[in-house]
Amino acid sequence: MVGGETLYELRCSLQLAETEREGGFSPHVSPYTAVTDLGNLLGQAGFNMLTVDIDDVQVHYPGIMEVMTDLQGMGESNCAWNRRSLLHRDTMLAAAAVYKEMYGNEDGSIPATFEILYMIGWKPHESQAKPARRGSATTSFGDLSKINQPSGAEKP
Question: Polar residues compositional bias: what residue ranges (predicted)?
Answer without folding.
Answer: 136-156
